[in-house]
Amino acid sequence: MVLPIVAYGHPVLRKVGAPIDENYPDLKKLIADMWETMYHSNGVGIAAPQINKAIRLFVVDTEQIVENFDEEDKKEFPNEKPIKSVFINAQILNKEGEAWPYNEGCLSIPKVREDVWREEQITIAYLDENFEAQEKTFNGITARVILHEYDHIEGKLFIDYLAPIKKRLIKKKLDDISKGKVSMGYRMIYPK
After folding, report:
1. What are 139's strand-pairing partners?
2. Residue 125 in contact with residue 90, Cβ under 8 Å?
3. Cys staple from 47: which of 51, 58, 97, 123, with CB 3.0 to 4.6 Å?
4. Residue 19: is it exposed, middle or buried by C-beta count within 10 angstroms (0-12/13-18/19+)?
C-alpha cells in the first residue's frame, strides 16, 4: 500500500527514532509498504519518520541510480556498488574520506534541492529484514543515500547542513511546503 509522506515542518521528522525488535507490529507489511511508497514517489530511499513512524527503520535502493549512470557518472564513480537493502536499528560506526558535494533532495521536502557535503565512505552496523546483524562499508552515492536516510532516524534533514544564507534563500519554499502549498504526484501529511 502506498503511504502518505510526511511534509517538512511535521514534528515526527525531528524525533530520534526508537529501536524496534522482530515483534514490531506488522513489520513485514510496513517494509513492503515503504518500498511501494518509495518507488511510487520516485525516491531512492525512505525512512520510517517520513511515513509518520518515529522508529529506526529505513530502506535504500541505489540500483536504480547506477542503472541510469551516464558515461561521466561511470568515470566519477567507477567502483559504485549499488544496493537494495533494509536497515533496522542502524548505527554509523565510522565516516571517512574527503567530504564531497552532491545535489540532494528529499521526499519530505519536495521541489527543494541543494548541494550537501558528505564523507565518501561509511561503515554502518544494522539489522536486515530478517534481524540478522550486518556490518558493512559503503562508498560514493550509496554511502550518501544511506547517510541521508540515517539522518532521518536521527531527527535531521539535509537542509540542516546548509549555510545560513542558503536556508534564508529557501525559507519561503519551506514555509509553503509546511502549509501544504505544494503539489506532488504523491499524498502528503502536512503539519497541523
Report:
1. 121
2. yes
3. 58
4. middle
How far apart (Å, rounded) are the C-alpha atoms in residues 139 and 102? 14
Q: What is the dihedral of CA 129, 103, 107, 192, to 10 degrees?
A: 120
Q: Which fold would CATH assign to domain 5-182? A: Peptide Deformylase (3.90.45)
Domain ranges of the chain: 5-182
Locate cell 514517489: which residue? 41
Distance (Å, whole) CA 145 – CA 43: 10
CB 156 within 8 A of CB 147: no
Distance set, CA 24 to CA 19, 55, 80 (Å): 10, 10, 33
pLDDT at residue number 70: 85
Spans of the chain below 50 pLDDT: none
Q: Select which of 63, 71, 149, 154 is catalytic.
A: 149
Identity of the amino acid at 72 = E
Q: Is 149 a catalytic residue?
A: yes
State the Cα–Cα distance between residues 89 and 58, nearest whole angstrom. 9
Amino acid 130: pLDDT: 96
- Give the torsion through C-alpha atoms of 15, 160, 144, 88, to 10 deg: 0
How many angstroms separate the CA atoms of 187 and 192, rounded?
16
Write down the pLDDT at residue 37.
98
Amino acid at 76: E
